């Protein structure tokens, strides 16, 4: 399963807010074996959101959109997702009923709170007020991290792929000296190899088969200068 993540908000683009939602979602999807192919940040603009959602819906199995839900002037995500599918934004009776069960009357909320894309499946917001929605294979979630996480857990079972196993080997050599060994790793084993330099080089070896990843990691450990651990090993 391939997925894309779209995070909405001017505050992300100017650096006022760190995009922790995308990082968290990538981790949860990877744990389920889902390949995240795109992570995109877009401004609070209907046209930009709609264009990206339309493109990714056509290309990937699922799209997760976070941010821009609610009744304020910059909460335009529902309108944009509706536009991507050529739908209207209408009062959603199920969302309104759920909020009423939680003690919110129509007079307590701005009218736009329960306005969602026509014929969508509303998603209750267990940690907040503004509901989310599912429109075909597009999942629209809040931007507030606690609300987003709780809502994602309601739909998490819809995201299913082939789980992978990863092993990290810390190598105490310059990254440039490892190029030939990386090539041989990929030739000998059915693995993906990621190289992340810092104080040392973190080599991440990933495979669908756990034993294959472990064999590849053992092969590299035998042929590289490793970072010594605190216990001297």
TrEMBL record:
This is Competence/damage-inducible protein A. Residues 4-162 form the MoaB/Mog domain. Coiled coil: none annotated. It comes from the Archaea.
């Amino acid at each position: 399963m391939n997925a894309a993540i779209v995070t909405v908000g001017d505050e992300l683009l100017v650096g006022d807010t760190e995009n922790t939602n995308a990082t968290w979602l990538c981790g949860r999807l990877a744990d389920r074996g889902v390949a995240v192919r795109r992570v995109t940040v877009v401004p609070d603009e209907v046209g930009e959101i709609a264009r990206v959602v339309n493109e990714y819906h056509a290309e990937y199995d699922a799209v997760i959109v976070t941010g821009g839900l609610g009744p304020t002037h910059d909460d335009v995500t529902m309108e944009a997702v509706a536009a991507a599918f050529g739908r209207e934004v209408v009062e959603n009776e199920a969302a309104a009923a759920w909020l009423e069960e939680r003690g919110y009357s129509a007079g307590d909320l701005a009218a736009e709170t329960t306005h969602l894309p026509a014929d969508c499946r509303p998603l209750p917001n267990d940690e907040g007020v503004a509901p989310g929605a599912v429109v075909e294979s597009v999942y629209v979630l809040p931007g507030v991290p606690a609300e987003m996480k709780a809502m994602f857990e309601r739909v998490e079972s819809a995201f299913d792929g082939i789980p992978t196993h990863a092993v990290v080997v810390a190598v105490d050599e310059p990254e440039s000296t490892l190029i030939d060994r990386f090539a041989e790793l990929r030739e000998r084993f059915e693995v993906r190899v990621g190289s992340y330099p810092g104080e040392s080089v973190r080599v991440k070896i990933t495979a669908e088969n756990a034993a294959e990843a472990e064999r590849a990691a053992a092969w590299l450990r035998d042929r590289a200068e490793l970072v010594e651990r605190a216990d001297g090993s």
